[in-house]
Fold this sequence. Notes:
Layout: H1 36-42, H2 80-92, H3 165-178, E1 216-221, H4 230-237, E2 256-257, H5 311-314, H6 412-423, E3 428-429, E4 446-447, E5 457-459, E6 463-465, H7 468-474, E7 478-482, E8 497-498, E9 520-522, E10 527-529, E11 536-538, H8 560-563, E12 566-570, E13 586-592, H9 595-599, H10 602-613, E14 629-635, E15 639-643, E16 652-656, H11 678-691, H12 703-716, E17 720-726, H13 762-773, E18 775-781, H14 789-798, E19 803-805, H15 811-827, E20 830-840, E21 844-850, E22 861-867, E23 872-878, E24 888-897, E25 903-915, H16 918-923, H17 927-941, H18 947-968, E26 977-981, H19 987-995, H20 1008-1019, H21 1023-1030, E27 1033-1036, E28 1050-1051, E29 1063-1067, E30 1071-1076, H22 1082-1089, H23 1110-1125, E31 1131-1136, H24 1142-1146, H25 1161-1176
Parallel strand pairs: 1-2, 3-4, 6-25, 8-12, 13-14, 13-17, 17-18, 18-19, 30-31
Antiparallel strand pairs: 1-26, 5-7, 7-23, 9-10, 10-11, 12-25, 14-15, 15-16, 20-22, 20-24, 21-23, 24-25, 27-28, 27-29, 29-30
Zinc ion binds next to loops.
Amino acid sequence: MSVNQQAHTGPPYGQPQPGYQGYQQPAYGGQPLPGAPQSQYGGPYNGPMPGYQQPVPPQGYFPSLGFPSKGSPVSLNSDTSSLAPNFIGSLRAPPTSGAPPPASGASLPSGHPGYNQFGHGDVQNGIPASAASMQRPPTSQPFLPGSAPTPVSQPATFQQYGHPPASVQQLSNHMAGMTIASTTASAPPPAGLGYGPPTSAPPVSGIFTATGSGLYTPYTASPGPPPTTVSQGLPLAQPPFPGQPTPTQRLPTQVPGFAPPPPSTGIGPSSYPPATGAPRPPTMPGPPLPGQTLAGPPASQPNHVSSPPPPSTMSGPHPGPPMGGLHGPPPPTHPPQPGYQMQQNGPFGQVRGPQPNYGGAYPGTPNYGTQPGPPAPQKRLDPDSIPSPQLNELPPQQKPRHRIDPDAIPSPIQVIEDDRNNRGSEPFVTGVRGQVPPLVTTNFVVKDQGNASPRYIRCTSYNIPCTSDMAKQSQVPLAAVIKPLATLPPEETLPYLVDHGESGPVRCNRCKAYMCPFMQFIEGGRRFQCCFCSCVTEVPPHYFQHLDHTGKRVDFYDRPELSLGSYEFLATVDYCKNNKFPSPPAFIFMIDVSYNAMKSGLVKLICEELKSLLDYLPREGNMEESAIRVGFVTYNKVLHFYNVKSSLAQPQMMVVSDVADMFVPLLDGFLVNVNESRTVIASLLDQIPEMFADTRETETVFAPVIQAGLEALKAAECAGKLFIFHTSLPIAEAPGKLKNRDDKKLINTDKEKTLFQPQTSFYNNLAKDCVAQGCCVDLFLFPNQYLDVATLGVVTYQTGGSIYKYAYFQLETDQDRFLNDLRRDVQKEVGFDAVMRVRTSTGIRATDFFGAFYMSNTTDVEMAGLDCDKTITVEFKHDDKLSEDSGALLQCALLYTSCAGQRRLRIHNLSLNCCTQLADLYRNCETDTLINYLAKYAYRGVLSSPVKTVRDALINQCAQILACYRKNCASPSSAGQLILPECMKLLPVYLNCVLKSDVLQPGLEVTTDDRAYIRQLVTSMDVAETNVFFYPRLLSLTKADVDSDALPAAIRNSEERLSRGDIYLLENGLNIFVWVGVNVQQSFIQNLFGVSSFSQISNALSTLPVLENPFSKKVRSIIDTIQAQRSRYMKLIIVKQEDKLEMLFKHFLVEDKSLSGGASYVDFLCHMHKEIRQLLS
Ligand SMILES: [Zn+2]
């Protein structure tokens, strides 16, 4: 095969991380930036400061900026044949027994006794123990002294650091004027508080979008006189903004709800569906016709929908009730009821055909964890029972009027659009405490003025209740989603690296918090009071500086740690394991060469790719070559190690067949520098596919492979990463051997949790050893059947590694995805031997952690490796009262080893407001972050509780959150009204997406491995990733403007929104679909697929043909843009309307009912309303 260099010219870190929104934004850092760091840091600093690193060659966090041009290519294949005999010779005489004794690592303590920087005891800022600190490798991100303060007019790129105080003040004031955050509960909220659009720009849809007050989004189920008919009453019944609260009003307006918006209300760019209650044009024929079967080709399954769905799922006549709706109660005879009772026929009843296997509407289905069976209207505790007529009194013919118009309930698309319009144009300046950042879907630039960028930390709320009682009452979880090594867009400045020399960073004597903008200098600058624990610490002499008349140090703007939210310190030897500076890390590639891997062509593909990929290992700054060493292992039932020492003419193989007690048979020559051993490595990679071409070995081992990598890193005394390419359940006799224990019958039983648990504790212990060594494990899986991801993934998960799964891997259709993932994974920024601690100011503390890591105590999150995509979610609880004056502070400190072996500390600080009024809490929440937390909480819950219990708990918690708001913050109103806080109006729709996700409510086509895989992925996702994963992005391609760079506007995830005459794209970060309607104009089909009719479109395509016309170019550009925004390459699946694959696609239309029983958005909203009413009554 040919290795395509062009395909991944995308920079390694240039892949915009999902957090960045800019839909239009092409890959960040897309261009190599060889000189960038220099110019970047040359400017803003003023005068040499003690402790600052002297200028060094510019380096940055661009260890590898795209594939540089490959220097001095070596012919890799030139002499393979002539040298092969030697090689084979050693292959046949493996020195299995005569090998060196096990490098058991006895010489290396496996703990980290030397880790004391997080310790409470003896780490001081004093003189370091070793002079070795003088010989540190060059740093990146040098904080250069000697430059002038940045003028205000400086371009945003290199930001404000060094601004004269006045300028900064100016900016802060400006921000304050923007009213992003209200700091006191009593102040009247300025217009546009929160995310709400400004008063002057009322939203189009009127009813549910933010209004000037920005506080509430009330809607009700027609509490007033009911409209007599849908067509007469609803569209015109209410002016768009009846009772609009004024900006100073905090009371919600009771807008009659569940009513369609005014006729002008369109969602998104398309006016479809009609806004009135007129019958909708038929859009999709709905589910497959009777007799149609769904036998999805395995190879074309999306990532996590890997096994062919059983035909029984979809075939045959559709059983089950026709449309959802209340099964039990007779049709209503009265005018519309408040609230949920309005569900009669399903929101889209007339439009859809019968749906197979649909559960009934929520009250009767187990969807929400309620008891199956017919709904029990009497169970409802309806505080409005008097004005609410009984359902069974309503005549059937009036049913249609109770339809809830989907346009009348909060729309994710509208909220995203509004935020983008309102907040996308201004930079987000972090100088103000407790500011809620723009949504993750908004493209914005961040200017660090003392708080960490939302790209590093997002919180569920930026205003924390002062007391534990308030927090409990609201049930709003207090959590921060932290991505310590997040990639930044090129226009933002990377954290500066501060070198305090031998004395190391300045820290509080008591709590060990690091110097930060919130520390208070006193006594003329001789001491400082800790903002976290209030302890007073002497300022070390070398750090002393005078204060100005405001009490601020005069070097405030010259020191990142005094004026910025995020920065790095160079760590001293005290922060290193065993008090020794670390060696550069190593990468070990470990390739399964059993029958399945050989047959599929996978091994050859990997070897070919590595030949070029090894030239792009992460480098630090402008280092000419990567410091990372590499090693190679192949395996099936036994392991083969390779000596690729540069002095050898040919690689040598050493076989270890005693897998019960793994050791590394060679030390010298196993881990090598790529450039030095280039020829030998190339020869090895050429020979591996030939050597095992005729293998009949189908069995594999797994744990010994990890053990081998671990032992090799121990022997080399370094941290590193294992890249394991594995195909099957490890059933060969060896430690960690597994059995097939898959059993889908356990679903919905109390034993379902065992499907998510590892089947042996062996891997947990192995993971612990790996973390102690800094051995991170990345796993690439290529299963054709169950291989127990829940168990195999344990080590990956606990070491901070990444897992990738390519079910039914086929070269033709899957290699693009795999190679793109591999390239990015190998090149991305990663820190090794990482330890993270989150400190908080008095009153709250971090109590719980979610993510891919290991914890040996209750405070330190340990990760053998932490890459730029990994996120840790931290939950906080009160342990005392907080004060509105002082607010609450977080400081996240990450100690890690860079890819060049430099030990560093990355610090992120964030200040939050505190409130005594619940309304302030609800006004400063962020639903996307809340959903990130709730999903992770639930996904961990399935390890120990029945899935139904987990779903119930989620629903209950959210109902309590909303009920507390209703009770304490909303104005008195009929209980028949559902009133949602403005900032949480999407909570129901997003929560429903979590509840019906494959982990919590699997469809029949979802495998046990898929669920375990998704569970692990989501646990490390950032807020932008969970946002699009749970609520996919759906775009109309036929409506795209081919002359614009912009992406077409998004539309809501419902079949209702699809037109038979259009082509759509749907993506969720893991899958990407192109859906083609049956009535699409022939010209679109010709231009996009190069065929003349709908029937000729092949759904086996995994890429779109490259055609020279504007439409084709536009669509491919959209796909490229989206791919670049995601951390994983998404496989493209073409779905033709009414084709069998369409069921797969519909799985992602999350506002609709799902085949697995998940509720539609409308049904779920009604269900939530009922839950809330029960809580209030
Ligand atoms: Zn302290």
